[in-house]
Structure formats: structure tokens, C-alpha cells
Amino acid sequence: MDDPDAARAASLTAALDALGGRAGNIALRRALGWDAADYAHVRAQLVAAGTLTPFRAHGGGIALGPRAEPRNPGSERALYQPLATALRGAWAAGNGYADAQVLVEVTAAQGGRATGGQWTRPDLVLVALRAYPYVPGKHLDVVTFEVKQARTLDVAAVYEALAHRRTATHAILWVHAPVDANLDAIAREARRHGIGLIAAATPSDVATWRTLVNPTRAAPPPHDLNEFLSLQLGPEARAKLGRWLR
To answer: What's the mean pLDDT in 200-210?
Structure first.
């Protein structure tokens, strides 16, 4: 690299990753063999960029930050926030929503609140509102995401996503899977029911996502779509959507 700061930043993040993605400042500086001033300078740059997150410890500590993924996320829940960030940003821009108003809500964790029965609660919902110069009115897409780990995946996940499709315009099964994962049987079933299928190695990095099946657009009755949004979105998201629609 021509930029010495970039080279040092790469060295620091590589050393931190080798230590498990989380380490005390003293241990990390010793591993790098840097003096305190150089270490503090590069660390401050990476914290400001959001690449690293400090934590409390004797002498202070640092961890790979919001852009880094857990090495082996133990549950689907660990995937939701990095996935939501990617959907709002690069995925929305690359899937026809660059000029739309977009909100993404994690809808999986709603406790015991009634949302319509079994398999009616997706893990995430993306809502996009668009207007076209030569088509009257505003046009709403509601895209649901059912999130699964590859190790627990079976064909029932397609039917979970299918339950969401009855009250949304698009339903997608999103699978955290290595690049070489064989999802042919799942893809066949998803295609048969108009369900999208995405396999992703890294939730926050859309460059690692593979769209194996594109979802077919559905046209749920307006009452059902309205009911779905009122049940699944939180009050802040509903208020924002209401403002957009005025």
C-alpha cells in the first residue's frame, strides 16, 4: 500500500482478528510490536471509522466493530442487525430501491404480541415507497425476510416464507451459508412457490450474497397488506410510513 496509515490499519485489524476479534490494548500492541503513540494513532482512526469498538477492561480493550461479523454466530438473532443494515444500504440500492424511501424493521423479536398466528411473523421486513414520473400515485413494496442458518435449514423454511407472501408483495428466504453450500432442493421448492432465495456468507457484506431465486411479486388485497403492516411494524416505523403516504 502507498498509504502508511492504511498499511498500519490493515496490520492492526489482521492482528486483532488473529486474537479472536477482541483483545486488550496492551496485548494487541505487544503482538504488533508498536510503540504506544503509533498504536494510539491507528486505533483512534479505526474507532472513528467504525471498524473497531472499544470496551472496558484493565488498560482498555478493542474489538472488531459493527462491520465485522461474529466468527460463528450461534443463533439467527445474531444475524438480524448486520442484515438489516445491509438491506437498508447496498441491497436496497442494488435492487431497484435507490430512489425509494426505504425502512427496514427487525420484526422477529416482538415477545408475545399477537401478530396473526403461526408463521405470520417474518424476521425482517423491508418497506419501500416509490413514485414514478408517468404513473399516478405512490407504489409500495413490502418485502419479508425469513432468516435461517444453513445447518438448521430444511424445506419447511420455504413454507414459513410462503405464509408471509400472503400479506406482502415479496417473500425471501435468506440463508447464512458458505459459498459452496448446496441449496438446490431448497431452490427448487422456493421457485415453485414464488419465494426468493438468497445465500450469504457474510450478513453485512452484500458482495458475498448469492441470489439463487428471484421472488415473484404478489398482489395481496389492500386490507391484508394494511393489516400486516399494522401488526408487524413498530410505532416509529408506522408513523414514518404514515408520513410518507400523506
So the answer is: 91
